[in-house]
Amino acid sequence: MRYGALVGIALLGLAPLALIAGRAQTRDNVYAVPIGEARQVLARTGLPPLVFGSNEPDVAIQAEGPSRIIWILRQDGAEMMRYVASLSPDGDTSTRISLDLVGATEGRFRNTGERLAQNGAIRNLYLVAMEERIASALERRPFDRTRILPATMAAAAANIGRISEDIDRIADADRRRQRENIERAYRDEAAGISR
Amino acid sequence: MKRGFRIVLALSAALAGCGGRESGVYEIGAHDAYVRLLRSELPDLVMARQCGILIHPRPEGVADRSVTWRVFSSGREMVNFTATLTPLGAGRTRAEVSIGRNASGREAYDGSLFYTRPAFNQPLRPAVEEQVAALLEGRSFDVSRVPRGMDSVCDVQRAGLEEGSQRFSVTDRPASETQGIPQQTPEAKPAGGAG
Predict the structure, then answer these.
(1) CB A87 within 8 A of CB A67
(2) Are A186 and B47 a contacting pair at CB < 8 A?
(3) Is the ipTM of this complex over 0.90?
(4) Residue B162 is nearest to which of A181, A186, A195, comparing CB atoms?
(5) Which of B50, B54, B164 sits opposite A181 (nearest CB)?
(6) Average pLDDT over residues A92-111
(7) Which of A101-105, B17-21, B53-57, B121-125 is least confident?
(8) Domain boundaries, chain A
(9) What residue ranges in B55-162 does DSSP mark as E strands?
(10) Could you name the CATH architecture of B20-174?
């Protein structure tokens, strides 16, 4: 509760940024790299950092024909969602890349597509982060965290209720675990079990 | 006129309610208060305020007049405190808390003393008063009514117990002796708390 309230206050000032980020829908980008080279680079490019937290899913990268790269995200073997990048030449030396995010429609995570559709801010964050991952790979520079900041704030603001509940739940579980450890220590002492 | 008088009466009653009852006075007879206190080994106080060495308050009574809890750890008395009961007519009792003193006459765990292996977080007195009040009012110990503990040694010891990783004992030698860490200078050696 304490942490949730603090996060809430902090995010109040960020609400306008959330609105700006929410409107950013452009998914086509052009990079100064020939399509053959872009395809080779992307086939070796992994997921963006940060956005998946400590529970980062496994990723398998598939090249489908000359113009599609697919990143399939799985957790415990079950597909959660996939990024699909469609590549097309933009002149001789540049490549246009269109990125989409598709939620799983079957298996354990079959509701992911529906949930992404309902939560545009999260979907936008995943896309912005992957776009930056692609851009940084093709432009041969480090991943720039500041470029995903507005989308991160928008996602946090849109999900503040859930974040707050999560923090409360974690804190409750922590207190419960600590109490159990203390009670166990007293039981061990009573049973003559040494430290 | 009559209506105005009623309003004044109502306001007076409300103001009287705001004042609350006299501190340390409880709506319970001295005998019942004595029985209630004597039966308790203060589990809420222990859980809220202990410092990582396992402690066991043992109540001893002087019939209808006082209850003293002697707090032991590994068979060694660490501190004691007493609730002295004074009957104030039918169904009302004053309970006054006193905390044992150290060799130099200071109240143990008064918030300013250094303990190598503390039994309770300091200051102890408000926590004991809250525990006695909770028992006599028939309610749960309310941690929000007690000032936050400020004994850093206590916090470190307690963390070991809460995490289940390390249980301290009053017989453990301090790190200053075993690891060459400079020792804090004790202000005064309290009874049962010098180590």
Answers:
(1) yes
(2) no
(3) no
(4) A181
(5) B164
(6) 92
(7) B17-21
(8) 25-145
(9) 56-62, 66-73, 76-87, 93-99
(10) 2-Layer Sandwich (3.30)
